[in-house]
């Protein structure tokens, strides 16, 4: 596994924020809400979730919008949306440095920022990316160069309870046995990420009397 | 066990199992407070934070968050935005604006109505706060007394602090505000929505008090309280000179 | 109005649930039955290749328009393929006019992913003259009637239309820089893989519905799309959010997906032969 580094409360004005870094990919996430929502997006029974992702270079194109859609559908399943009707939760993700792991880093950053903001969730979630090298070996959390050489890239998002699959996103073809092998490897890595989340939150509450 | 004592158990993340509770099997009742939910006979956390329990079997999660979610009976500081019919629209930092009727003030009547300008600050209590309704404030208790509520004078200053700090300093057991009172003369109003209004004699004193509040975010309470005398040492000299 | 219709309006969840308890869906299908699929190719005369696909009430049309373009500087030996999915308000009241919505973008991106992941096209074959001239295939998928399972329908129509493409012969004279386009369209696009997608709607941990209708999608909590190649290899899996699924469920999806491969590809094959016979 690459090195994971994170920091919460990075931005002072937003309700929750985090900086998450896996290897050479760094994403800054900011969460605002539950807050005001414009009338067209207002739902009588649930929170509207808006996710905005911007890449480190260039403009947000169709690829980034697709990424946004994957991220927002993942988050929507994790947060309890019916607790605050007629409100919106804004998740803004800014990639600061890019090394191929934009999706998994963004999702992990979003999870930490939501934890920092105290948004009510069913469980935490963590994302892991792996790729199949041309030799057939599975590389966890590859670099951009390794992804370019690989035959397939798979990203899984697991929940923090039973580590079941919340989202899966695959590029390139692979047979189902390899896929299952990837899933198991990523599942193990996801447990480590949840441990990182726990440590970060414990750190935030270090002044609480226990 | 003394029911007033709240014990801190451990840190939870959303989804963590707190305890199993089946109302048909378990005789003793438990209460679940904010940050917890009961589903399939399991109580799970929904917010990250310190799990706490008091003597009456009330479990809750103490979260550190900045966004205020209105709760009934809580005292908050609001900003008057505009007048709307018989009501004022007040920003209390939640997702929706709150309203207050011009009659919800002490000694207010149709003839002696309370006049407020946009930008005025008011300290009130939430009468209505639930997810499906607009929050409503009042500045009187059930006996029509103000008990400290009402508009705040214009010569103070308001700033925001995280919600858990606000909850912490209003605790009567908490020595923080009293300790500061020993050093300088000041007036303080703390709203549960994380807004603090202070009044002191000079601008410098106000800034010093604001900084003292920020101290709470960065160090444990004991350390913050201990450093207050040093923090205000410059001011106490002035106090004596004035006298 | 019949009592059933009233029930459906007032208690849509219970109405729907009562069907699932009997292992049926409101349209009479079982949980793992797909809807009938009809494919017609060559439906748009002005396009280089086209196909119309119906899956139950979902109707999707794909047209491939070929244009000559200059290759990109970075990849001078490659042509282009540009998939685009449009969801106009005429296919369902769910969609609004204006710039493409989230669902349309997701579908476009999905097809793009499939093209890249399956390596179905060698883009170098679309190049006529390195650094000078190449084909650019615009594949526009338009939904005519939306009743769920857009991704499957879009991919089938896209694959059928692509196999229907006939390009004219083009010669490029390097000295005079003149382009000569032949009159008859005869050159097909060679496909290296024929991916087939299968979509499931997740309703609960135990119940998943294959080939969902719009109603199934509304009632369910999310879709999983599994794309497989002819040999059963996994090409793309698309699960964004939705109910949690276990390892075993994923395996089950792949097994169902494998059954679909031959069925769909045969269907496209038959449609192509039919069209050839007719012309």
UniProtKB/TrEMBL annotation, chain A:
It comes from the Eukaryota. Residues 6-119 form the Exoribonuclease phosphorolytic domain. InterPro entries: ExoRNase_PH_dom1, ExoRNase_PH_dom2_sf, PNPase/RNase_PH_dom_sf, Ribosomal_Su5_D2-typ_SF, RNase_PH. The keyword Zinc does not apply. GO terms for molecular function: RNA binding. Keywords: Exosome, Nucleus, rRNA processing. Its main location: nucleus. GO terms for cellular component: cytoplasmic exosome (RNase complex); nuclear exosome (RNase complex); nucleolus. Pfam families: RNase_PH. It is found in: Nucleus. One of its GO terms (biological process) is nuclear mRNA surveillance. Belongs to the RNase PH family. This is Exosome component 5. It comes from Halocaridina rubra.
Automatic annotation (TrEMBL), chain B:
Belongs to the RRP40 family. InterPro entries: Exosome_RNA_bind1/RRP40/RRP4 (IPR026699), KH_dom_type_1 (IPR004088), KH_dom_type_1_sf (IPR036612), NA-bd_OB-fold (IPR012340), Rrp40_S1 (IPR037319). It is found in: Nucleus, Nucleolus. Residues 156-203 form the K Homology domain. It comes from Halocaridina rubra (Hawaiian red shrimp). One of its GO terms (molecular function) is RNA binding. The gene is EXOSC3. This is Ribosomal RNA-processing protein 40. Gene3D superfamilies: 2.40.50.100, K Homology domain, type 1 (3.30.1370.10), Nucleic acid-binding proteins (2.40.50.140). CDD domains: S1_Rrp40 (cd05790). The keyword Metal-binding does not apply. Keywords: Exosome, RNA-binding, rRNA processing. GO terms for cellular component: cytoplasmic exosome (RNase complex); nuclear exosome (RNase complex); nucleolus. GO terms for biological process: CUT catabolic process; exonucleolytic trimming to generate mature 3'-end of 5.8S rRNA from tricistronic rRNA transcript (SSU-rRNA, 5.8S rRNA, LSU-rRNA); nuclear polyadenylation-dependent rRNA catabolic process; poly(A)-dependent snoRNA 3'-end processing; regulation of gene expression; TRAMP-dependent tRNA surveillance pathway; U4 snRNA 3'-end processing. It comes from the Eukaryota.
TrEMBL record, chain C:
SUPFAM superfamilies: Ribonuclease PH domain 2-like, Ribosomal protein S5 domain 2-like. GO terms for molecular function: mRNA 3'-UTR AU-rich region binding. GO terms for cellular component: cytoplasmic exosome (RNase complex); nuclear exosome (RNase complex); nucleolus. It is found in: Cytoplasm; Nucleus, Nucleolus. GO terms for biological process: exonucleolytic trimming to generate mature 3'-end of 5.8S rRNA from tricistronic rRNA transcript (SSU-rRNA, 5.8S rRNA, LSU-rRNA); nuclear mRNA surveillance; nuclear polyadenylation-dependent rRNA catabolic process; rRNA catabolic process; TRAMP-dependent tRNA surveillance pathway; U1 snRNA 3'-end processing; U4 snRNA 3'-end processing; U5 snRNA 3'-end processing. Pfam families: RNase_PH, RNase_PH_C. The keyword Hydrolase does not apply. Keywords: Cytoplasm, Exosome, Nucleus, RNA-binding, rRNA processing. Belongs to the RNase PH family. This is Ribosomal RNA-processing protein 43. It comes from Halocaridina rubra.
């Amino acid at each position: 596994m690459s090195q994971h580094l994170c920091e919460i409360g990075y931005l002072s004005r937003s309700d929750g924020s985090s900086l998450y870094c896996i290897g050479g990919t760094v994403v800054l996430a900011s969460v605002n809400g539950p807050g005001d929502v414009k009338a067209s997006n207002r739902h009588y029974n649930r929170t509207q979730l808006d996710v905005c992702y911007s890449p480190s270079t260039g403009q947000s194109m169709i690829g980034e919008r697709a990424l946004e859609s994957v991220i927002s559908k993942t988050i929507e399943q994790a947060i309890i949306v019916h607790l605050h009707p007629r409100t919106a939760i804004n998740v803004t993700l800014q990639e600061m440095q890019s090394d191929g792991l934009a999706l998994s880093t963004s999702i992990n950053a979003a999870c930490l920022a939501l934890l920092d903001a105290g948004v009510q969730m069913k469980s935490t979630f963590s994302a892991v990316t792996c790729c199949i090298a041309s030799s057939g070996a599975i590389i966890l959390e590859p670099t951009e160069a390794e992804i370019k050489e690989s035959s397939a890239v798979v990203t899984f998002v697991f929940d923090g309870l039973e580590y079941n699959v919340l989202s899966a996103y695959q590029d390139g073809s692979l047979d189902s046995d390899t896929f299952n092998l990837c899933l198991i490897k990523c599942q193990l890595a996801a447990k480590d990420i949840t441990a990182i989340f726990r440590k970060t939150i414990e750190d935030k509450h270090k002044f609480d009397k226990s | 066990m003394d029911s007033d004592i709240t014990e801190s158990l451990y840190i939870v993340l959303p989804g963590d199992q707190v305890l199993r509770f089946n109302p048909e099997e378990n005789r003793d009742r438990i209460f679940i407070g904010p940050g917890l939910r009961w589903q399939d006979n399991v109580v799970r956390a929904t917010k990250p934070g310190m799990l706490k329990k008091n003597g009456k079997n009330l479990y809750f999660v103490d979260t550190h968050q900045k966004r205020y979610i209105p709760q009934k009976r809580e005292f908050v500081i609001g900003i008057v935005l505009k007048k709307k019919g018989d009501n004022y629209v007040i920003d209390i930092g939640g997702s929706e604006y709150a309203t207050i009727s011009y009659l919800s003030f002490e000694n207010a009547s149709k003839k002696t109505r309370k006049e407020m300008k946009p930008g005025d600050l008011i300290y009130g209590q939430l009468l209505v706060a639930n997810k499906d309704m607009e929050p409503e404030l009042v500045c009187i208790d059930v006996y029509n007394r103000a008990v400290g509520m009402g508009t705040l004078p214009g010569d103070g200053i308001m700033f925001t602090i995280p919600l858990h700090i606000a909850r912490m300093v209003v605790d009567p057991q908490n020595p923080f505000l009293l300790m500061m009172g020993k050093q300088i003369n000041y007036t303080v109003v703390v709203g549960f929505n994380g807004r603090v209004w202070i009044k002191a004699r000079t601008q410098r004193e106000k800034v010093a008090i604001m900084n003292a509040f920020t101290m709470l975010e960065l160090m444990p309470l004991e350390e913050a309280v201990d450093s207050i005398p040093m923090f205000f040492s410059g001011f106490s000299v002035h106090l004596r000179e004035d006298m | 109005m019949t009592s059933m219709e009233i029930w459906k309006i007032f208690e849509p969840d219970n109405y729907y649930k009562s069907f699932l308890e009997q292992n049926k869906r409101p349209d009479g299908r079982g949980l793992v039955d797909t809807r009938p699929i009809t494919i017609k190719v060559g439906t748009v005369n002005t396009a280089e290749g086209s196909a119309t696909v119906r899956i139950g009430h979902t109707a999707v049309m794909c047209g491939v328009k070929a244009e000559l373009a200059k290759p990109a500087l970075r990849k001078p030996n490659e042509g282009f393929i540009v998939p685009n999915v449009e969801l106009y308000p005429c296919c369902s009241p769910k969609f609004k006019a204006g710039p493409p919505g989230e669902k349309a973008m997701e579908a476009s991106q999905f097809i793009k992913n499939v093209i890249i992941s399956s390596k179905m096209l060698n883009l170098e074959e679309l190049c006529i003259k390195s650094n000078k001239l190449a084909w650019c295939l615009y594949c526009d998928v338009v939904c005519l009637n939306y009743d769920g399972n857009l991704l499957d329908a879009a991919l089938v129509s896209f694959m059928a239309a692509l196999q229907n493409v006939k390009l004219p012969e083009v010669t490029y004279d390097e000295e005079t820089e003149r382009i000569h386009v032949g009159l008859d369209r005869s050159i097909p696009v060679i496909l290296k893989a024929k991916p087939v997608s299968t979509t499931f709607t997740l309703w609960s941990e135990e119940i998943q519905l294959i080939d969902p209708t719009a109603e199934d999608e509304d009632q369910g909590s999310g879709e999983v799309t599994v794309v497989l190649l002819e040999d059963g290899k996994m090409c793309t899996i698309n699960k964004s959010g939705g109910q949690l699924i276990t390892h075993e469920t994923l395996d089950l999806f792949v097994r169902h997906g494998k059954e679909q491969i031959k069925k769909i590809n045969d269907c496209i094959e038959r449609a192509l032969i039919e069209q050839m016979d007719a012309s």
